[in-house]
Structure formats: C-alpha cells, structure tokens
Amino acid sequence: MKPALRLLTVLGAALVCMAPASGATARQTAPAAAETPEARGVAQWVTAAELAAWGRERRDAEALRVAARMLDEAPLRVGPDSDPGLVPVLTAEGLRREAAALQPDDAVIDQLVVSAARARAEAQAEAAAEAQRRREREAAAAQRPPAQRQPVPAAPPPPPPPPPPPPPPPPPPPPPPAVVGVQSSPFGDGPVSTLKRLGSRESWSFEIDARGAEILRVAAIGDGDTDVDLTVRDASGKVLCADGFGDHYPVCTLAPGAPARLRVHVVNRGAVWTRVQVLTN
What we know:
Number of helices: 5
Helix content: 25-40%
Low-confidence stretches: 1-31, 177-184
Radius of gyration: 39 Å
Strand order of the largest sheet: 1-2-9-4-7
C-alpha cells in the first residue's frame, strides 16, 4: 500500500472513532418529576404547622394569623380511614382563636377606648346641662308671685286599652352558612387528610399507589404531645424515606421513576396517646 493511501486509511478510521454514538447507545436524561398542586399543598401545611409552633413558643399572635391564612389557601379532602369523632389537629379557625387569646385585635381596643372617652364626655355634658336647667327653674320660681290655690280638676277616666297587635310574621329562613376559606385554590383539590388516634408506641400503616415521574409527599402532623415518626417503604420492604428527627410533624418527599405501591408507617414514639393528621397528595 502506498504511503499516501495508508495515511488516508488511518485518518478515516480515526474519524469513525470520533463520531457520536448512535441513538441506541446515546445517554438518555430522565425526565424531572412533576410536582402537583396537592403535593405543594402538603408542603404548605407542614410549613404552617412549623410557623404555628414558632408562634406559640414566642406568643406571637401575628405568626398564628399568618399560619391560618396559609391553611385557608390549601383545602383538604377527608380520607376514608379517619377515626370518627376526632377534631383536626390543625385548623385555620383554631389558629385564629389562639391568636385572639394571645393578643386582642388592635382595632377592637381602639374602639373600646374611643367609646369609653365619648361616653364620659357625653355624661359630663348632660350633667352640666341638667345643673343649668335646675338653676334656671329655681330662679324662675323665686321671681313668681305666690298664686292662689286653685281646685284641682278631677282626672278624666283612662281610655280603653288598645286592641292587641296582630301576630308578627314568621321569621325569614336563615341565610346559608358563610364559605370558610377561599373559593378557588392554587393547590387544586387539596391533599387528602386522615385523622388517627394512636396510643403510646402504637403505629399505623397504609398502602398508597404512587404515580411515576410525579412527586409524592406524605406528612404526619401530631398534636404536640409526643414525637411522631414517618417511614415509607417499597413493596420489598426497603426503606425509601424515614423522618424520625424527634418532632411532631415529619414529612417524606419521594419521586418514583415508575408507578409503584408503597407502604407508609406512622409511629407514636411517646408514652401517651396522640392525635395525628396524615396528609398525602
């Protein structure tokens, strides 16, 4: 083979080796997991729970009111496995009651102060006017000559009593109850809320079908009496997420690449029973 032809052959082989790989062997990038509005709602509820705990610790009424507004934005769907008769652990109305107990509304205080000052001023003015009228009556009586006593005419008979009034009309029907919270929410239909009563060291588990390429978020909000732990396992029992940091609002966030059935475990680590509000998207 001639030297020039040999050189062309070597250059051709090098170009073939440097060419990009075919579609079958090219590196593929996995699509990012999508976050649903309901998954964001779970995160907002956990943030509101942390903010409420911060506000209670510092007796900050404004923090509790902000947490209540956060809950207003994220509606909840009631889960079918809730224990009957349990009051939700966290509600916007309850946080507003706590805030009112910590710090009365400034507008109400201002109104009470202004009303009291106005009442005192009106009472003083009325007392001064009554004293002036009394002095005028006494002065006029002192200037009048004594009058001869006249016989007092007999009083006329009292008029007959009026007929009884007609019965009042029936009251109108009560207005429909006011809608609490927002009419529409950026968090879709909202997370699913399940209320459970867990005894000391008791655990509760349930299965959930996770969709592929979509963020799954699970949270457990306790009533604050005990520590609550949260664990998520796959079908083989492998732990995918565990939150046991010694607080009462653990949260797990996962992004399964394919549809899968997962098992969620909620554990009461305390020595007394507790209420737990479990949220899932």
